[in-house]
Design a protein that fits this description.
The structure is a single chain. The protein is built from five helices and 14 strands. By secondary structure, the chain is of the alpha/beta class. Strands 7-9-6-10-12-13-14 form a seven-stranded mixed β-sheet, covered by helices on one side. It has a five-stranded mixed β-sheet with strand order 2-1-3-4-5, with helices on one face. Strands 8-11 form a two-stranded parallel ribbon. About 3% of the residues have low confidence. Belongs to the AIM32 family. This is Altered inheritance of mitochondria protein 32. InterPro entries: Aim32/Apd1-like, Thioredoxin-like_sf.
C-alpha cells in the first residue's frame, strides 16, 4: 500500500465504475472534481500529502431539500462523514478541500515556497462551517475492492466478500447497516469520539461497501478495515486497532470469519494476509 494523508470515499450508491473513475459519464462526478484539485498537477497537489480519492457503493444521505442534488463522502482515517455536498456549484468541493483535506502544517520541503503559495496549500478551518451536518464516524467500515471495470478479478471477489462479511458480522452480533446515513439538521448531536464509545459486537454498527481501485490487483480480494477511534473490546478494554485502517490482500470468503473474529472483534492483525495499515496520526503500520 502507498502512504496517504486521507482517503476520500465518495458515496455513489453503485457497485462498479469506469476503469478511471474520473472518466465516469452520465451525471455528477465528485471524484473527478477532487482529482482535479489533488491529482497530479492539480491546484493542491502535494507529494508529501497524498489524498486518495475512491468511489464507494455506500449511498449518499438524502439532502434536506429533496429537489437539491447532493453527494456524501467519508474521510479516513479522520473518521469524518460529510453528508451534504451540494452539487450546484464548485463551492462545496472547495470547502471540503480547504476545510478538511489540505494539511494543517506543510512539510519542511515547502519552506522555500512564497508565503502566498504556502498559505494556499494550508488548511483553513473556517471553511468547515460551510458544510452542514458533519459527523464523527462511529461505524466499523469494511471496504472491499469490487472495481470490475478496472479488473475482472475484483469484480468477482468484491460482491462475494461483501455478502460473506455481512453474514459473519451479523452472526457476531454487529448490526449491519445497508441504508444511507440519515442526518437531521438542527438536532443537537454529540459527535465527539467519546460519545460513541461502544464495545464492538455489542450492537455496534458495521457497514460493508465496495470501493474502486486501491492498487495491487494481484492481491485480490483486497479489503480495508477501519476501526472507529473510540472502539472497545467486549471486555471493555480499548480496542488495539482503534483509529486504524488495516489492509488485507488475497482474502477469500473462507477467510472472512477469521478476520471478523481476529481483527474486528479482537484487535489483532492476521499476518498472512496483511498488506499494511495506517493509524490516526497517518503513520504506516507494519509487522
Amino acid at each position: 500500500m502507498s502512504s496517504y494523508a486521507e482517503q476520500v470515499l465518495v458515496c455513489t450508491g453503485r457497485d462498479d465504475w469506469s476503469s478511471r473513475i474520473e472518466d465516469e459519464r452520465g451525471g455528477d462526478n465528485l471524484a473527478a472534481d477532487l482529482k482535479e484539485l489533488f491529482g497530479r498537477g492539480g491546484t493542491y497537489s502535494d507529494p508529501y500529502h497524498n489524498i486518495s480519492v475512491l468511489n464507494s457503493s455506500f449511498p449518499s444521505s438524502p439532502p434536506p431539500r429533496t429537489q437539491a442534488q447532493s453527494a456524501s463522502a467519508y474521510l479516513l482515517p479522520s473518521f469524518k462523514y460529510i453528508p451534504f455536498l451540494p452539487r450546484v456549484s464548485f463551492d462545496s468541493v472547495q470547502a471540503l478541500a480547504k476545510g478538511y483535506l489540505l494539511p494543517e502544517k506543510l512539510h519542511p520541503a515547502h519552506d522555500c515556497l512564497s508565503p502566498i503559495h504556502r498559505d494556499r496549500l494550508t488548511r483553513k478551518t473556517a471553511y468547515q462551517r460551510l458544510l452542514l451536518g458533519v459527523q464523527d464516524v462511529a461505524d466499523v467500515l469494511v471496504l472491499i475492492c469490487g472495481h470490475g471495470g478496472r479488473d475482472p478479478r475484483c469484480g468477482i471477489f468484491g460482491p462475494l466478500l461483501r455478502d460473506e462479511f455481512e453474514d459473519k458480522l451479523a452472526k457476531a452480533r454487529l448490526r449491519v447497516a445497508r441504508d444511507a446515513v440519515r442526518v437531521q439538521l438542527g438536532q443537537a448531536e454529540d459527535t465527539t469520539a467519546s460519545a460513541h464509545a461502544r464495545a464492538i459486537g455489542d450492537g455496534a454498527v458495521a457497514r460493508v461497501g465496495l470501493i474502486s481501485h486501491i492498487g495491487g490487483h494481484k492481491f485480490a480480494g483486497n479489503v480495508v478495515i477501519y476501526i472507529p477511534p473510540a472502539s472497545r473490546t467486549r471486555a471493555g478494554e480499548q480496542h488495539a486497532l482503534a483509529g486504524c485502517g488495516i489492509w488485507y490482500g488475497r482474502v477469500e470468503p473462507k477467510h472472512v470469519e477469521g478476520l471478523v473474529r481476529e481483527t474486528i472483534l479482537g484487535g489483532r492483525v492476521v499476518e498472512d494476509m496483511f498488506r499494511g495499515g495506517i493509524d490516526s496520526k497517518r503513520r504506516l503500520l507494519s509487522i
